[in-house]
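Example for tutorial group B:
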C-alpha cells in the first residue's frame, strides 16, 4: 500500500501487557508478540511513523499490589520495570522481521535502552525506526495510558491507537454482559461522564486538552492496526 493512502503520518500504539499475554495466564505469548510485530511492520511499510507505549500487567500490576498493602510508589516502580521486559521482547520480535527499533526508557538503564529525550525520539521516527517507550512516565501514580497520551502529545502524533481484546468501547464489559452496547463514536466528555473504562481520566483529559483522537480497537484480529491508520471503519473513535 503506498504512503498516500494512509490517513495519519505519525501514530502512537498503546499495547497493554495483557495483550502480549494472549491466552496465557502470565508472561508473554511468543506467537502474539510475533503477530503484533508483523502488524507494526505492515503499518511502517505504508509510510506511517509508529511509536509504541507498552504496559506491564502481564508480569506485575502495581495497583493490585498496592491494594494488597504494598507501598504504592514501590509497586508502581515495579510495574514500570515490567514494561521494560515487554519492550525488549517486542523489540526482539520486530528486529526478527527486519524492523529497526529503539527502546526509550523514562528510567535510566543504560545497558538496556536509551534514556527518553523527546528530540531523540522524534529523530528516530524521522529515520524510519519504530520507537518503543517503556517505564511509563517514570513517575508513580501515573498509568501507561497516561504515558501514551503524554508521549503522543510530546512527539506531535496524529492519533493514539488503544489496543484491546474487544472491538471497541462498550457501555459495560461485553464479556460479562451480552447486552452491552458498542459505541462507534464518542466525545472525550462522554467517556469521562459515563466513566467508561477505556483509558484513565488523566489520559483522556490530556488527549482532550490537546485535541488528540483515540481509536480503540481489537488487536487480536490481524490487520486491524493497518485498517485503523488508513481511516477504516474500525473500533470506536474518541474525539
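The residue assignment follows.
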Amino acid at each position: 500500500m503506498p504512503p498516500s493512502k494512509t490517513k495519519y503520518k505519525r501514530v502512537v500504539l498503546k499495547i497493554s501487557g495483557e495483550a502480549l499475554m494472549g491466552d496465557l495466564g502470565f508472561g508473554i505469548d511468543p506467537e502474539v508478540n510475533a503477530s503484533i510485530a508483523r502488524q507494526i511492520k505492515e503499518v511502517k511499510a505504508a509510510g506511517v511513523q509508529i511509536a509504541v507505549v507498552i504496559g506491564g500487567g502481564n508480569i506485575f500490576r502495581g495497583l493490585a499490589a498496592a491494594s494488597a498493602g504494598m507501598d504504592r510508589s514501590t509497586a508502581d516502580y515495579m510495574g514500570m520495570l515490567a514494561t521494560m521486559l515487554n519492550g525488549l521482547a517486542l523489540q526482539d520480535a520486530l528486529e526478527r522481521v527486519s524492523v529497526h527499533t529503539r527502546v526509550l526508557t523514562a528510567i535510566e538503564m543504560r545497558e538496556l535502552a536509551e534514556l527518553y529525550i523527546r528530540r531523540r525520539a522524534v529523530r528516530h521516527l524521522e529515520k524510519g525506526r519504530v520507537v518503543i517507550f517503556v517505564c511509563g512516565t517514570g513517575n508513580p501514580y501515573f498509568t501507561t495510558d497516561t504515558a501514551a497520551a503524554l508521549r503522543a502529545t510530546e512527539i506531535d502524533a496524529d492519533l493514539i491507537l488503544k489496543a484491546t481484546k474487544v472491538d471497541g468501547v462498550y457501555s459495560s464489559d461485553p464479556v460479562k454482559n451480552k447486552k452491552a452496547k458498542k459505541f462507534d463514536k464518542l466525545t472525550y466528555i462522554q467517556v469521562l461522564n459515563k466513566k467508561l473504562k477505556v483509558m484513565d481520566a488523566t489520559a483522556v483529559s490530556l488527549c482532550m486538552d490537546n485535541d488528540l483522537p483515540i481509536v480503540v480497537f481489537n488487536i487480536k484480529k490481524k490487520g486491524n492496526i493497518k485498517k485503523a491508520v488508513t481511516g477504516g471503519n474500525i473500533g470506536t473513535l474518541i474525539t
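The longest helix spans residues 72-96. Compare this with the pattern of hydrophobic and polar residues in the output above.
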